[in-house]
Amino acid sequence: MSTSSANGSSAERSYFDLHITGFGYLNRIRNIPPKKGKGSPYLACTIAALHGPKDSPEYCYIDAKVTGKDAIHLIRRCTEAVDAKRKVLIGFRVGDPWIDQFTYSKGPKAGQPGASLKARLLFVSWIKIDGDLVYKAEARDADETTDEDPAAVEPADATVRTEAPAPKAVTETPLLPASSF
């Protein structure tokens, strides 16, 4: 549960937080314009979250609104790699998930009902691009990291190396400019 107070007043509001942590492939990074001119545009992405056995994982697609200054900055920095069809794997925490019901408007499912899992992307704990770790968040507390070690996360369909590469610092050969993270 979290608490907050508005404008420094002594009245606090309490909220129940529902968070999902995991890791998955980053896809469809895009800016969403406001509906009917109300509100402001926001950044969104789709995460193909992995779950199930390591040798045959399944995917749960999460359509996420990116919130938080750090998360927005990190996801924007991954746009080029995602657009280039590189494998971008992230450790993440999403909050406040909900199901959005809709009707397909085109394609073979036109007119049929559908559903989408939506959430807010709150935190990015690490980023791997094509198997190389390019970002790892400094742990502030136990709630802000995923249970998985990013070095140990590799789905079965990833390239397997027969020799371990020489250890290197993440900042030695970043795939994205070091100043971007």
Report on the architecture of this protein.
The protein has two helices and eight strands, in the order βββββααβββ. The strands form two sheets. The chain has a five-stranded mixed β-barrel with strand order 3-4-5-7-6. The protein has 181 residues and is mainly beta. It has helices at residues 69-77, 79-83; strands spanning 2-5, 12-15, 19-32, 42-51, 58-66, 88-103, 113-129, 132-136. The chain has a single domain, classed as Beta Barrel (OB fold (Dihydrolipoamide Acetyltransferase, E2P)), CATH 2.40.50. The longest helix has 9 residues, at 69-77. Helices cover 8% and strands 44% of the residues.
Class from helix and strand fractions: mainly beta
The main sheet comes to: 5 strands, mixed, barrel
**Strand order in the sheet with the most strands:** 3-4-5-7-6
Could you tell me the strand content as a percent range?
35-45%
List segments where confidence is low: pLDDT < 50 over at least 5 consecutive residues: 142-147, 158-174
Rg from Cα: 18 Å
Estimate percent helicity. Answer: under 10%
The overall strand count is: 8
Total helical segments: 2
Q: Per the principal axes of the C-alpha atoms, what is the gross shape?
A: globular
CATH class: Mainly Beta
Order of helices and strands: EEEEEHHEEE
Q: Which CATH architecture would you pick?
A: Beta Barrel
Examine the coordinates and then state which fold CATH places here, giving the name of the CATH topology. Answer: OB fold (Dihydrolipoamide Acetyltransferase, E2P)
| Distance linking N and C termini | 30 Å
What is the number of domains?
A: 1
Mean pLDDT: 81
